[in-house]
Fold these 2 entries.
Entry 1:
Amino acid sequence: MNILHIAALATTVTLSASLLADEVKLQTIPIKDIDGKQTSLKAFAGKVVLAVNVASQCGNTQQYAGMQSLFDKLKDKGLVVVGFPCNDFGAQEPGTNAEIKSFCTSKYSVTFPMMDKVSVKGPEQHPLFKELTGAGAAFPGDVKWNFGKFLIGRDGKVIARFEPDVEPDDSQIVKAIEDALAKK
């Protein structure tokens, strides 16, 4: 093995270790569920996760129905939809966690996991969203509005990002999810 092969191998090992560290970091960032219980995305290890920042008083709020439909249709194949209430855009999620939970279950029959209300941008940005949107992220850039979507593969890597105006049943989201679910 010559020096070029050794250098290339060292670069590959370094990049692989860096990517693995990013995956582990994303899955181990502490979050709370909507009832205040500590958890992390590691609770969904081995599943495909669609993480969405949500709001109850937004023009996109009807997307809860599509998110629930996706979850119902694909949860047995390994999909988990996870809602992260957020009041960062137009103060469209002013309620408490209890009020948000009540709204989601009574209005949209939500059964997928809902998390504690977080900030997805600005100085109060939750560490999970810093990791999802920061300069080193797979799809960097601020969340633009409520119902931004991040698709995370079974391995914990972010594999796609969809803007708020892309409906949960849009063919590009469905295809990305089905492709991710097909990978074991």
Entry 2:
Amino acid sequence: MTLRGGDHRSGKMPAVDALEVLADLCSGDQIVVTNQGSARILPKLRRRPLDFHYNPSTMGGAVPLALGLALAQPQREVLVVSGDGSLLMSLGVLVTVVKAGVTNLAIVLLDNGIYEVTGGQETPATPAVDYCGLARAAGFASACSFQQLADWQARAADALSEPGPRFIRLAVQTAPNDYLRFPTPPMDEQLAQLRRALGAAARS
């Protein structure tokens, strides 16, 4: 795998390569929700009817949306990718996920310490917040953190198969600008594809 962008000596993994690991592991009937930076990166890596890239800017909205899908589709695994800035907008959602009782939901947090798509401002959480500790305190069945790409590549499949709900923090570099400029697929097109895919599964 070729490392894409960023300072490879930073001690964090390239964001694009981190998401490519997810793209390679997601199963055919899994719903994937992205937001903000990841909503621009993942569509450039792959496109599936069950991938929903949730923009324009809805900071804090991706995890609640994924929770709703997990409740409505209990037979499917749902994976949501959130940035740290977005999660900070709605930390209470971690408690809500646990209270809802879902076990088919995984939250993958891309933690780069900045509000990436609004100008690169540092978040107020840098560098002290233990996101996995917050998830455990909220009651998540599993929570783990990855700093290095090789470790994430080696252990991602196991982390995603832990009891749910799952919380996975990935320490990532800032994504390359050419990925962040990539347009999110049209919302009406995505909604139509998602509805068709979910409707076809309900009829089968």
